[in-house]
Amino acid sequence: MAISPISPESAPPPYPHRHLLGIEGLSPDDISQLLDLSEEYAEQSRGRGRKLSTLSGCTCINLFFENSTRTRTSFELAGKRLGADVINISVGSSSIKKGETLIDTAMTLNAMHADVLAVRHPDAGAVKLLSEKVNCAVINAGDGSHEHPTQALLDALTIRRRRGHLRDLQVALCGDIAHSRVARSNIYLLQTMGARVRVVAPPTLLPPELERLGVEVFHDMRRGLADCDIVMMLRLQRERMQGTFVPSIREYFRFFGLDYEKLQFAKPDALIMHPGPMNRGVEIDSQVADDIDRSLIHEQVEMGVAVRMACLDLLAHGVREAGAL
Ligand code: ASP
To answer: Please, are residues 314 and 297 in contact by the beta-carbon 8 Å criterion?
Structure first.
């Protein structure tokens, strides 16, 4: 049963950006606004009246040029919970496969009068390019190794709900930093919100621009996890690798895979995170991943829906208010 939208008195203040293309460049206030509204949606999603009419009459399109389970599903669920019409376009079943360019796709989408477009693309920068050609708001659902802003927001929301704040927390991002858009977006967000970030990886899995990112770098888990509050494990992004980056999976797990032996270097109450999909026995041991006292992995998925509801809500209202449609 549909319940009434958030009342005008409690309607969120306008969000100052038209698109959400990345975390880089967002202010602490921008991030807090997104997290605070996400928090409200997280509570509401746990309650009974989960179906709202906040975005009734709006059209949200999910355009995915790369595979996805969690992100695409949660954008769909988020749009539906807000009462929007949601359309999913995946490359395998669209004209894009037949050679339509990104710009032609944009023109088609414009003709459909979408309000918000969530786009995932294998190339860094492709989502921004699309955002310059369409009339609606665009959310980057992951572009190559560049950014994945909604993932960083849901990670931050998950941490904030457990720890109450982000400021001064010591967070270790471990694994394939070089190819990870999750790592980049998390580094921007956590640093903007006052957390301390370090990366732990073999030198072959670190990106060249690391110095610019201002994080501490470690090449072994023992030192890298020392005194950490949060241990975030990242998947080896083999689809983005050209050549060999690790000697063998066995060796990689031995030195960089998170198991209880390595976890004991972190704080005794350190929490474990992973954006998924997980490769059990590669970057994380199964028992550690499933440890209900330490692992936040399922909560991350739950918060993904709440964060995407907040992003759709703020951006769709922004587009409507700007009278762009
Ligand atoms: N799901 C995340 C992403 O799309 C992480 C991963 O694929 O490893 O980047």
So the answer is: no
For the chain, report the end-to-end CA distance as a whole number of angstroms.
29
Q: Which atom of ligand 1 is nearest to the CA of 71?
A: 1
d(CA 276, ligand 1 centre) in Å: 6
| Structure tokens given for 176 | 């394939």
Q: What is the pLDDT of residues 111-146, one digit of tens each?
A: 889 999 999 999 999 999 999 999 999 999 999 999
Give the per-residue SS3 of 137-189: EEEEEEECCCECHHHHHHHHHHHHHHHCCCCCCEEEEECCCCCCHHHHHHHHH
Residue pair 115/58 in contact by the 8 Å Cβ criterion: yes
Query: How many Å lie between the centroid of ligand 1 and the Cα of residue 316?
Result: 25
Q: Is the CB of 142 under 6 A from ligand 1?
A: yes
Residue 148 Cβ inside 6 Å of ligand 1? The answer reads yes
Å from CA of 182 to ligand 1 middle? 7
Assess contact for 268 and 242: CB atoms under 8 A: no
Q: Is the CB of 182 under 6 A from ligand 1?
A: yes
What are the tokens at 288?
């550690």
pLDDT, position 276: 94
Q: CA-CA distance, 219 to 199, in Å (whole number)? A: 8
Q: Express each pLDDT in 228-258 by its tens digit.
A: 999 999 999 888 777 777 778 999 999 999 9
